[in-house]
Structures are given as structure tokens and as C-alpha cells.
Amino acid sequence: MRKETIAAISTGMTNSGIGIVRISGEEAVLVADRIYRGKKKLCEVKSHTINYGYIVDREISSAEKKSEEVIDEVLVTVMKAPGTFTGEDTVEINCHGGTFVVKKVLELVLKNGASPAEPGEFTKRAFLNGKMDLSQAEAVIDVINSENEYALQSSVSQLKGSVKKKINDIREKIIYHTAFIETALDDPEHISVDGYGETLKKVVDEIIEAMKRLLDSCDDGRIIKEGVRTVILGKPNAGKSSLLNVLLGEDRAIVTDIAGTTRDVLEEHLNLKGISLNIMDTAGIRDTEDVVEKIGVDRAKEYADKADLILYVIDASRPLDENDAEILHLIKGKRAIILLNKSDLDMQVTKEQEELPEEFPVIEISAKNVQGIEELEDTLKEMFFQGELTFNDEIYITNVRQKTALQDAYAALERVNDSIAADMPEDFYSIDLMDAYEALGNITGETIGEDLVNEIFSKFCMGK
User: Fold this and answer.
1) Which of 44, 132, 233, 246 has the highest local Cβ count within 10 Å?
2) Residue 401's closest CA among 366, 437, 441?
């Protein structure tokens, strides 16, 4: 880790009410004192205090006479180690938020002894100084990038250490039994491992079950973080684009009475009751000789195959036909909601229609009159998060790197059970137990290499 004092702008680079320049390192207070003018020097004030004063650019003329130019009126927060985010002395200069003045303050800080911070370096120092583990550090960027209520709650839960605690509990059990086996093998006269495989299997089965719950949360975790991949399917002129416009609250998709108006996939992002939807309006599915429209139909089927959710829009004012039969076959076994659109007209298709599978919720809507949309929103929430989503006890793995480490640990523990079943020597148990221990350590960062640490933090924004 670099030892020099670092600095960066920690607020967005747009004109705003407040801008913050953050300094961290052994000389953070000293550097700030060189450009700060107040009632007291910053090195004399108490930790975790806010101090009023001015940032000045001090220059020495050719005649060796000191002169100062006031740059801005500021509030400076002084926080002494170790009780800081990074674990180092930290100073935050709160100045007016014009982009020019914030850059000018940073230039002065750098000119007076600080080095420019790398992306994510403040959080990286917090990790390396033991202020947080790697799962908490990754949660920092997830909090910043949160696009819905659930993603924010999940990230804050991880930031508070929910994943760290769970993983550490599992690792403690693993290392306890590994140490027992190793000790017994070193001192067989005093410690016996006869029949220990049976005892170990009960422990391993409990850990595997706990890890299975974590792995099962990964899909929901991805949806929480990235949003629900949603595809709107239906025949031409069923009202798919009208539905998209209603959900977006604006006329984003072109709507006409001409069948086949939508020929390509139109993708939008929206938020419904805290759930993020990455929603795609697709070409109407039907047999067609039009080459361009056929490409659109093929793309619609391709996107539907990869979707988390399909909204199947039916024109309920017309009877079902062979195109509807094809769509029903397409959505079989998937998460889908059937929407009977144009319910304001004489309905030819009803909820009781025998062709509609019972496995899917069926909702009557009118995109034209904005009816049934609230029921759709409630159904979505219930379908993905069983109503209310809480983070008191549940842990959601939202990170692909963490998921991979869990899978590696899970596979290692399964090998332990295989060795027990095959009545292999006890040292085989400890080898795979340590593999699981090391894999789980990748999640918290205890067994991770420097190159991967650098790669993870390089994805952070500057100043965080």
C-alpha cells in the first residue's frame, strides 16, 4: 500500500451547494494546515470537529514577502486515526460546490504535499487497515450504484457486515475441525480420530445447507442489484408498446393501429414499487413473410428465452389463435404474467379461458385507460420477493466474485463428504476443508491476492 498522504474530490463534478476535498494519510492535517486559516491551526483542534476558516493560496514574492490569496470560505472536518473511515488521519474540506473552486482547492492540497488518490483508494486503505472486510468494501460501491430501494437495503446490510459475519461463522467451524484433525494426526497417542468421520459429516452437512441457502440467494441478489430482465411478448397490435408507455409514464414507444409497427427490441429501465425492471418491448409474434419483421420476431423469442420475467400481453377483444398458442408454448416453465389488455372493450378472452395455464397470474388491464397497473405492480412484488423484502435475517449474494468463491467452497465440502463415504484417511478431510476455508476467505479478502485487490478497487469512483 502506498504510504503517502492522498487527496481527491469526493463529490460529483457539477456545480452544487457543497464540494468536498478529502485528504487521508499521516500528513493529512499538516497538508491542510498549510492552506487553512482559522482561529486555530488544525493540528491544535480536537479530533472529529468542524472548523470554520478560509483556504488560502500562499505565495512568496521575489522580495521574500509573504502574500496570500483567499480562495474560499470553508468548513474543515478533522478526524484523527484510528477512528476514521480509512483508519488514517483524515481531513475533509467542505467548500462551495462550483467546479472551478473545488478543483482549485484540490490543486492547492496537491501542491502542498498530498498525492492524487487512485480510484477507490480511500476504501482500499480502509480494507487494508482492517476497518472493513472485502465484502463490506464492495458494498460501498453497491450503495453508490443502487438504483432502487431493495438494492440500497441489501448493500447497506452488507456494509454493516451481514455477509462478513456469516462467512466468518462458517470459516470458524471449518478451521476448528481442520485443526483438530491436524493435531490428532501429529499426536495420535493422545488424540484419537476413530469414528471422527461421522461427527465431521454432521458438521459439513450443516455448513453445506447454510451455503446452499446463500447460493440460492444469488439469483434474487442479481435481480435486486441489476433489475429484473423483463420482456413484453404478444401478437402484433395487442398493446405491448402502449403498456410500455404507461409503465414509463411517457410516450417512448411508437403506437399505431398498424400491426407490426414495432420491428426491433426497445429497451428501457424503470422502477415499480422499489423493483427495477430492465424492460424490453419486442416485435409482435406472428408468421410473416416480411424479412425485417421476421428478424424482429426472432429477436423477441431470443430475449424471451433469457428473461427473468415475461409480460404476455393478449388483446382480450379478439379470440386466441395459433400465434397465441405459440407464445404460450414459448413461456412454458418460465416466470410470466398474462395481461388481458383492452379490458375496456367487449372481452373475448377471460381469466377462465381454458387455454390459459393455471401456473401464471392473469390480470385484466387497459393500457388505454391505465387500469390494472397497480395490480400488476403488486403481483410483481409478490412474485419476486414474496411481498415485503427485509434484510434482518436474510443475506443476498449480489456479487459474481462472491458467488464463485461460494461455489468453490461448496465443491470442496462435497469432496469432504465423498472422502468420508469412501472411508479415506483423515488427512484427505483436512486438505479439502482447507480448500473450502481458503475459498471463503476470498469473499472477506483474507486469502486474496494483491492483483485482484487492485482490480476490484480500480472499479470504484475517484474520491471514494
Assistant:
1) 233
2) 441
Q: Is the dihedral of CA 44, 48, 50, 54 positive or negative?
A: positive
> Quick one: pLDDT band at residue 260, thresholds 50, 70, 90?
very low
Residue 75 has phi, psi (to 5 degrees) of -115, 125
Q: How close are the terminal C-alpha atoms of the chain, in Å? A: 16
Integer Cα distance of 20 and 32 in angstroms = 13
pLDDT score of 221 more than 80: no
CA 144 from centroid of its chain's CA atoms: 9
pLDDT at 191 (0 to 100): 80
Which strand ranges, in their side-by-side order, compose the sheet holding 362-364?
266-272, 275-281, 228-234, 309-315, 336-341, 362-364
Look at the block and give the residue holding cell 441457502: 213
- Exposure of 333 in the CB half-sphere (CA atoms within 13 A): 4
Rounded to whole angstroms, the Cα distance separating 378 from 286 reads 30
In this predicted structure, what is the pLDDT of residue 460? Answer: 78
Q: Given a cut of 50, is residue 431 above it in pLDDT?
A: yes
The pTM assigned to this predicted structure is 0.66
Q: What is the CA radius of gyration of the chain?
A: 30
Which of 54-68, 205-219, 426-440 is least confident? 54-68
CB atoms inside a 10 Å sphere around CB 42 = 21
pLDDT at 255: 43
Single-letter amino acid, residue 80: K
Task: Write down the pLDDT at residue 3.
Answer: 85
Residue with cell 462550483: 98
Name the residue among 105, 145, 140, 102 with its Cα closest to residue 123: 140
Percent of the chain with pLDDT over 70: 85
Phi-psi region of 191 (alpha: psi -120 to 50; beta: other; left: phi over 0): beta
d(CA 456, CA 382): 34
The pLDDT value recorded for residue 387 is 45
DSSP conformation letters of 311-367: EEEEETTS---HHHHHHHHHTTTS-EEEEEE-TTS--SS-TT-TTS-TTS-EEE-BT
Residue 85 backbone dihedrals phi, psi, to 5 degrees: -60, -45
Tell me the backbone φ, ψ of residue 289, rounded to 5 degrees: -95, -10
Q: For 239, which DSSP code? A: S
* d(C-alpha 360, C-alpha 420), whole Å: 44
The confidence score (pLDDT) of residue 185 equals 83
**Contacts by 248-254 with C-beta closer than 8 Å and gap 24+?**
253/281
